[in-house]
Amino acid sequence: MRQVLFGGLLVLLSPWLWAAAAGDGLALDESQRAWLAEHPRLRVGVVLQAPYAEFTRRQQQLSGLNVELFEALGKSLPVQFSWRGYPDQQALEEALRAGKVDLAPGLSQTPAGLRQWLYSDPYLRIPHLLVGERLGTVAIELEQLGATDVIATRMPSSAADYLRSNYFNLRLLPQPSDRQALQAVLEQQARFAVVDQAQLSRLSQESEFATLQVVGDVGLPQLLRIGTRRDWPQLATIIDEALHALPAQTLEQLQSRWLTAQKPGIKDSPRFWRNLSLLLGTLLLVSLALLAVLRRQRSRLEHRLLDARQALALREAAEEALRLTQFSIDHSTVGILWVNWDSHIRYANRAVAQMLGYSSEALVERPLELIEPNLSMDRWLNLWRRVRSRDEAALSFESNCLRADGSLMPADVSLSFLRFRDAEYLVVYITDVTERRRAHAALEESEARLKGIASNVPGLVFRLERPLPGAPVDFAYISEGSEQLVGYPSAQIMAADFGIRSLVHPDDRARYHTTQDAAIAAASDWQWQGRILTRDGRVRWADIKARARHLDDEHVVWDGMVWDISENKQIELQLAESRAQLRDLSAHLESVREEEKARIAREVHDELGQVLTVLKLETSMCELAYGELDGGLRERLESMKKLIANLFQLVRDVATALRPPILDAGIASAIEWQARRFEARSQIPCLVEVPEQQLPALSDAKAIGLFRVLQEALTNVLRHAQAHTVAVRLSVEGDQLCLSVSDDGRGFDPQAARAQSFGLVGMRERVLMLGGTLHIDSQPGEGVTLSVRVALDDQEENA
């Protein structure tokens, strides 16, 4: 407890302890001490940019080079600093104009800034470095680089402006950030990148940039200063003196800690994690093998134990068979009586005694007429003779038994003849059917209610029955709603020579019989849509849906309904016609766009090519005429010739992108050319298989459409698939031309991606405009296979 109180007291007294020690490290005159006494707290504005200053959310505090610098200054000045962070330099300057900031570290002196800040002497020099792949110990000079050595740099930035104004031989690649400039070097888009030392020290800690190193100095150092308010010149003087009083070792420690590139350790090495993954995978495989062996042994033991249990169960079942037989009779839910020829009961089980309200002993030796008043002796003897003569068959009938309390119990009675030793009995089985008869009555009421509901449904409700396989199918029920739907009463439609088939439009009867016969043959659900004719000759669209039910093994019924869908069908037909018109319009626009691309490609190639040729000729003439007079002019002319050559290549690339000339050589050559171009750009091996013989004639629209689908498919592979190989196959299959693109990438679920992927939608619509089909076969982790089929032109003409 004392230690906690002492620590808290130190925290509260730390500002006064720092103020008391200020006079020991820094010599200030009386006016400066008085000014600081009047301003005990100064507001420090800082731009939140690593590694100079950044806010740590977990610790809820600022950290960075400038923060530690001011902590060192605070130890020599009797003031306290309150920090205020801003996203960029513009926000900081607005805060200064609003009077919210007194001083700010990490500023570069600019002419515009001199009107707002009083700058201190530089306290840190941040060089801009040239970064590239590891090239040994050779330093790179910017004067030695040419137009082929692309340099990535952040734009806009002071480094980019410096390179543009001082090195005309450099080819700069603009990037939005220093990270993307380094990534451009790793992706071979640029040979070098220009990054300041502060950002390089931060980014080099990531394993992604472990292969990069500093290969040269750009020669543009960034001098960091502390800016103070212009209306407080005393503060600027005090800050300068405090900076000069700082030990050089302190600044060196700050620079070493925050501006020295840290290489990733072994845990950041991809090789380390790859080896660790291989080791863990090997251990996992060994564990799975051991688990499989243990499961196999366990399965064998379980089978042996199961066999032993089954043998034991059979033995126990054999021992209990006799006891269970007697127990089953005594505890059966069906009442059982053994009755002698004289109608007296010899045995009664527990169930019949409970049904009738007697005890089992009370029923023994009593006449059967006691519980069935209608069984007089004459009738009983007649039944005895009938059952005894049949010997093996049982006689069943319905009856009402009399209970002990005088009430009647509905029952099903079954009689069987039994010979036991030297005696003969009739076994009487009595089943209480009170609930069944109540349920039957409720069922009849329910059927009547359902018929009433069906007669008021806006449609035709029917039941179709087939009693036996191959037997005629007849309508067992048709609701009264038929007259409202088609104008015929239900009795007329149920006639054997009429039926619903007589209502079907003649043009749709074949399809009607096909669907109905298939449903009847398979005893499955039946569905059909088509036109029907009403009694007054009007045409209506109807939807028939019937569900099949098996009443027993052979008896099948179809319960269904006929709906009037005329309005919905009319809307559907209009929608289909509108879709067809939209697809035709899209095809026309696509054709116009391809023609316009071809026209622009020709104009770009011909017109710009001629102009560039003349320009190259004029440059060569100038070189011949005046190149020997001035060496600098000759170098300029050489640079112009290189620029013209680049423009030639650019014109060819633009014309090729608009419409590749290789299409004129045929779709097979165009596919091979595009695959080789994809392979060169992505470094992914691409296997191409095209027919060796001459392909049948293919229209220009279909050739361009297939080529655009191939381009989109390869673009999707490059962007999303993460594939190692790609296979492209063009083949003629019957009267169709088939193009397939397969990769071994990560795959996807086509059903889940269909709504979000406009690329797939575009390819599908393009293929539909060509009159073809597109199929995508993919599973997550199993790659993608895209297949396109279009009809050959000669086949379309013959059709």
TrEMBL record:
A molecular-function term among this protein's GO annotations: phosphorelay sensor kinase activity
Residues covered by the PAS domain: 329-374, 446-523
Signal sequence bounds: 1-19
Keywords: Coiled coil, Kinase, Signal, Transferase, Two-component regulatory system
Keyword field contains Glycosyltransferase: no
A Gene Ontology cellular-component term: membrane
Domain PAC: 395-445, 526-577
Domain spans labelled Histidine kinase: 599-794
Nucleotide-binding among keywords: no
Coiled coil regions, renumbered to chain: 568-595
PROSITE patterns recorded: HIS_KIN, PAC, PAS
PANTHER family from the UniProt entry: NITRATE/NITRITE SENSOR PROTEIN NARX-RELATED, OXYGEN SENSOR HISTIDINE KINASE NREB
Protein name: PAS domain S-box protein
Organism: Aquipseudomonas guryensis
